[in-house]
Amino acid sequence: MSEEIKFGTDGWRGIIAKDFTFDNVNLVAGAIALYINRRGLSDKGVVVGYDKRFLSEQFAESTAEVLARHGIPVFLSDKPVPTPVAAYAIKVYDTAGAVMITASHNPPYYNGMKYIPEYAGPALPHITGEIEENLKKIISKSDRGIYFKGKHILGKHIIKRFNIDEIYLEHIKQLIPFDDMRKVKLKVIIDPMYGAGIGYLKNLFDDLGWSAREINNKDDPLFGGNLPEPTSDRLTTLREWVIKTNAAFGLALDGDADRFGVIDSDGSYISSNQVLYILLNYLINRKGLRGPVCRTVATTHMLDVIAEKYGMNIIETPVGFKYIGECLFKERAILGGEESGGLSIIGHIPEKDGILANALMAGVSVLEGKSFKDIINDIKSVFGYKVSKRLDINCSREKKQEILDKMTTFKPDKLIDKKVVETITIDGLKHVMEDGSWCLVRPSGTEALFRIYAEAGDIAEVEGIQNEVRDSLGL
User: Fold this and answer.
1) DSSP string across 351-404
2) pLDDT of residue 445
3) Where does 198-263 have alpha helices with state H?
4) Alpha-carbon distance 403 to 456, whole Å?
5) Which residues contact 447 (CB under 8 A, 6 or more apart)?
6) Class of residue 314 by CB neighbours under 10 A (exposed 0-12, middle 13-18, buried 19+)
7) pLDDT tens-digit map of 40-50
8) Pair 345, 283: CB distance under 8 Å
9) Which of 212, 253, 323, 411 could cross-link 197 (Cys pair, CB 3.0–4.6 Å)?
């Protein structure tokens, strides 16, 4: 039902033909158009992009028509594009924002729609809240057609196709050690996971003269029968290719290329948390940058340890890259990231970008002349080491409410005999211990599910913390 359309942590998503229909897409497009017009931004125009999912191009064209009928010029992508490229187009064309048709890493039968405001980062809750209110007003009208039949005539003058691939990649080259990277010849494997990121990293590495092989790069709205999410368990093929070709590393992208995945030369998976502190160390010691660092409440405190050594502030946010993006453009953070595979840096747009993340990791590999595992060991020798793990626990709806009630009074003095020195409640329930270990219990916003994140000096301590918290809450 259209009345149930809600913007989650990263836009509205739904099952194609059940929730995500042309009628509902047009309703949301109309609500976005009202938001833009009421701010007097319609003359600036809007970018519309789309990924490789089933009917994404047609949904994008329908969205463009609705916006155009509201008198808003549209820059419509001439092909599937990554979310960060659509976001960067906002800056290129100085528009009032972008609408991206994508369900990112969700299953193939989903599609989605997100509005990216004029600052080129994820929409904050007050913006999506206003769009949702506009949507309710449209739905309550007896004649919805009024929102789709404006005085402006749809025509080529108001909808124009665009392609900024070369402009975007030139920008990425300015953010990575491109000249140093040209001095070496590496063999790398790229896995865009059948998504919108096909070709971007390969073109970048081809310009370097590297031997870059791309796998899983054909059009397939079923994503090869896999979820287009670059987690360790879904990168088996990439891992095999790296090992059998003796490649320096493998790099992966999710369905809309805003998340990243990294495989080391020996087939080891480099976690998002590890990527974040590798890149922070690079930005500080190789680029000479200083400034705030932002991370979500569920992301590694290795960032805190490194930042503290250099007198830099850490900003902790709720889960969701929209809050990281806010820090990037308001606080001028040099790095912002989350444990789920999203990051961006100063000088780039405040939107997560898997292409940038992978390109930066490639640059770090060249500058250090080492495997990622060896780079991690170097960091460990200076800053120590923390192991992170997330535990997902399903339960019934009734049980979920019971656990939520228990969480309001769960205030342990110790966890695995370590004194609790701080409790944080900005998103879920987080306890920090005296040695820097921590645990976060966070309920899913949509499912009967809890996530228990923990970080400590070794995996035994991590699992000990998770088990104690799980038993205490009755999960």
Assistant:
1) S--HHHHHHHHHHHHHHHTS-HHHHHHHHHHHH---EEEEEEEE--HHHHHHHH
2) 74
3) 200-208, 236-245
4) 24
5) 394
6) middle
7) 999 999 999 99
8) yes
9) 253
Q: Which residue has the tokens 């921590």?
A: 438
| Global confidence as pTM | 0.94
Listed by start position, the domains of the chain span 2-164, 184-268, 387-473
How far apart (Å, rounded) are the C-alpha atoms in residues 159 and 73?
A: 6
Q: Which residues of the chain have pLDDT under 50?
A: 1-3, 142-143, 146, 149-156
Provide CB contacts within 8 A for 191, sequence distance 6+.
214, 215, 216, 230, 235, 237, 238, 241, 250, 251, 252, 253, 261
Q: Which CATH number fits domain 184-268: 1.20.58.220, 3.40.50.10610, 3.40.120.10, 3.40.309.10?
A: 3.40.120.10
Residue 188 has which token pair?
């790398």
Q: Do domains 2-164 and 184-268 have the same CATH topology?
A: yes
Q: Which fold has domain 2-164?
A: Alpha-D-Glucose-1,6-Bisphosphate; Chain A, domain 3 (3.40.120)
Q: Are 89 and 110 in contact (CB under 8 A)?
A: no
